[in-house]
Design a protein that fits this description.
By secondary structure, the chain is mainly β. The protein has six helices and 52 strands. The longest helix has 9 residues, at 479-487.
């Protein structure tokens, strides 16, 4: 992973920076609209600067292939509102209140625009008030004196132009002497002493055209030097306009079901991120060396709320991932607004969003996704403050609670007793911590991004292995018996449900990819094929990337190529992996990340040749899009796995030994065909077995067709 760039990320968000500069004007109702001309607003007086609100649209998209279940995260629009304000500051000696003061949130209105032929919704500033309260920070660079006060900006309209004027500041300090600077914050929050506390709204609504709303994500100016001329304070350099820049990032969350089963998702979504937090404080611990005219330092004073930090027991894990913060998001139910989901006949709509089953890309799907996004504003976090890993990047992941709503689908594949039942009753257990989306892109303050929360969950290869008898309960049999029992032509009550004739022995191309592992090579720091393990750090050990054995993997009768990433400490019984990546290097034009999983394998000993292997699997799919810089560091560590419950993980226990394979069913051209293979810790030995065929071996029946 070390040295790889964001561009090399599997399923990465493809960042398209399309900036459209627009000048702002206001109608008679003081509602903000944008013009596409380049008209210059005139300077009104010596003390008053011209006003222009610059908006930038930023587009971001991410897509997978058109293969069924593929995820795509597309971000459509954004507005970066950079407002130039007229400033006329009058000093006074009035004593400010020492009590907490709550300031008004910033007003916005949802605008509908046609951008490059696409109709999009995004938030625009919508200032209609006569005054806008703000927090003002005054700083004397010579004496390192600081004062935080509250002041109001007067909203002034002259024709189609809006100006914001600061006319009065109450301060304890004498501003006529020294080297004074001013910084201002607008848009919500609560002043507590010298701290500005900000808590953004996390119960969010569906966006719609002309919707008016407010947000407590603040706007802030740079530091500006001020001087006293006569009885008034002015900017030292009046040629540069004072600009309020948005400090938050807008995310527009949409939802989509890409499962072949109907689903519902709990309206409570959890975001875990090292780059964003819903609440925190501006603590103005000012370094005089960083204060100069037009120095943009507002973000450096922001600190996320420590109460939202995820506690880690490993400093190494925090080094490679930085500190993460939890944000609990509620997708608010509004009965009068049709969000595109399936509502008719459904219950508890206040807590769940329902979707119909996905029928495939070629078929029209109804009520499988929302038609409007839910808008949230979050505060960026400087994740480099808590990590000294040079390649650290944004890690933002969204988790939810999802359930299959088809009544007969109530047998969880996490439970091995499920395998004694009809596969038509099976469903994955994704009710606790299902990964809905993730990204590592650097999102710009003041911009709006669309993020699709997508439900993708095929039947996994490991779920097609008959699992009722595991570990010590497994029996070795002769080949003829194994084949007959698996196919249901030979009855054995020790293997219930196999007489359904829904199973057969697995083929080499189906079986080996599940168990493929290079634990021996990692333990010995030994080359595997053309690859050599690389040391990636304490608590991770060595890592290596390898493709699945054979020319391809059989996925539901289709030939697909996959890559795998493994890591393990030398002398340790545990190996972590991210498996079933879409093959690196673009060698499979029809590749897919739909089967991508995180895996933890536990062996009897680091160099075991017999005994039991425990394989634990957590589904990732195409929604796992973290950069290669951090993807393995985040997922392949005990700190991640201990946050999972038993319901999140598929657990299987197998014997390290020989297994019978299928040599007759659904064999495709150029497919390797073998009678048996061995599960071992040797990445090479897990290839084709060409030695003497054992008289007896274990067998694992394979479900002929996916359960869903």
């Amino acid at each position: 992973m070390v040295g790889l760039t964001v561009e090399e990320n599997i399923g990465k968000l493809r960042l398209h920076l399309t900036f459209i500069s627009l000048l702002s004007s206001f109608n008679t109702g003081i509602t903000c609209y944008f013009k596409t001309n380049t008209e210059t607003l005139k300077k009104i007086s010596i003390k008053v600067f011209s006003l222009a609100i610059l908006a930038s649209l930023l587009c971001l998209s991410c897509s997978e292939t058109t293969t069924d279940y593929e995820s795509s995260v597309s971000t459509t629009t954004s507005t970066k509102a950079l407002t130039t304000y007229d400033v006329d500051i009058e000093a006074s000696t009035e004593t400010p209140s020492n009590q907490p003061v709550t300031r008004a949130n910033m007003p916005f209105k949802i605008s509908e625009e046609n951008i490059s032929g696409q109709t999009v919704l995004y938030p625009k500033l919508n200032i209609t008030q006569k005054t806008m309260p703000s927090l003002v920070v005054l700083y004397n660079k010579r004496s390192s004196t600081k004062e935080v006060v509250v002041a109001n900006w007067t909203v002034s309209k002259e024709g189609s132009t809006i100006k914001l004027l600061l006319n009065r500041v109450s301060t304890h300090n004498y501003l006529a002497s020294g080297e004074w600077y001013i910084m201002s914050f607008m848009g919500g929050g609560e002043k507590k002493g010298d701290i500005l506390e900000v808590n953004t709204e996390t119960t969010i609504n569906v966006m719609e055209k002309d919707q008016e709303f407010t947000t407590s994500c603040p706007f802030a100016t740079t530091w500006r030097r001020i001087v006293k001329q006569g009885s008034k304070l002015k900017l030292n350099d009046e040629s540069k306009k004072m600009v309020f820049k948005p400090q938050g990032v807008f995310l527009v969350l949409s939802l989509e079901n890409r499962m072949t089963l109907p689903t519902k998702i709990n309206r409570n979504i959890t975001m875990e991120s090292n780059a964003f937090c819903a609440s925190g404080e501006y603590k103005f611990n000012i370094d005089r060396n960083n204060v100069s005219d037009d120095a943009d330092k507002a973000a450096s004073y922001w600190e996320p709320n420590s109460a939202n930090a995820i506690r880690r027991s490993s400093s190494i894990y925090e080094k490679y991932n930085a500190k993460h913060y939890t944000t609990n998001i509620k997708l608010n139910y509004e009965s009068a607004k049709d969000d595109g989901s399936h509502r008719q006949g459904q219950s508890d709509l206040g807590n769940y969003i329902y979707f119909n089953s996905y029928k495939g890309a070629s078929q029209a799907a109804s009520k499988t996704k929302t038609n409007r996004g839910f808008l949230i504003c979050l505060m960026p976090v400087d994740y480099k403050k808590t990590s000294n890993y040079s390649a650290i990047v944004n890690e933002t992941l969204l988790f939810g609670k999802v359930d299959v709503t088809k009544a007969e689908r109530k047998s969880s594949t996490n439970n091995v007793t499920t395998y004694t039942t009809d596969p038509k009753t099976w469903a994955p257990d994704i009710r606790n911590r299902y990964l809905l989306a993730s990204f590592s892109d650097e999102l710009k303050k003041g911009s709006s991004y669309d993020v699709t929360l997508r439900i993708v969950r095929p039947t996994l290869p490991i779920e097609r292995l008959w699992a009722y008898r595991q570990g010590n309960a497994m029996k070795q049999t002769r080949r003829a018996d194994a084949e007959g029992i698996a196919e249901g032509t030979q009855t054995d009550n020790y293997y219930p449900s196999l007489n359904s004739k829904l199973y057969r022995l697995p083929k080499y191309s189906e079986f080996i990819p599940i168990f493929n592992n290079p634990k021996v090579q990692l333990n010995r720091n030994q080359q595997l094929g053309t690859g050599h393990p690389a040391y990636i750090g304490a608590e991770y050990g060595y890592a290596i990337t390898s493709d699945s054995h054979g020319d391809y993997v059989d996925i539901n009768g289709q030939q697909r190529k996959f890559s795998n990433w493994f890591c393990s400490k030398q002398g340790n019984r545990v190996m972590y992996a991210i498996m079933y990546f879409k093959a690196f290097g673009g060698i499979d034009a029809n590749g897919t990340n739909n089967y991508k999983v995180a895996v933890r394998m536990t062996f009897p000993r680091p160099n075991a040749t017999s005994g039991k292997i425990k394989v634990e699997t957590y589904y990732l799919g195409p929604n796992y899009n973290l950069s290669f810089n951090v993807a393995g560091y985040y997922m392949c560590h005990e700190e991640f796995w201990k946050r999972l419950s038993k319901d999140d993980i598929i657990v299987r226990t197998f014997q390290l030994d020989f297994y019978w394979l299928n040599d007759k069913d659904d064999i495709k051209p150029n497919e390797p065909v073998y009678l048996c293979t061995k599960i071992s810790l040797d990445g090479v030995a897990q290839g084709p077995y060409t030695g003497r065929v054992p008289s007896s071996a274990y067998f694992l029946p394979w479900l002929r067709k996916p359960a869903w």
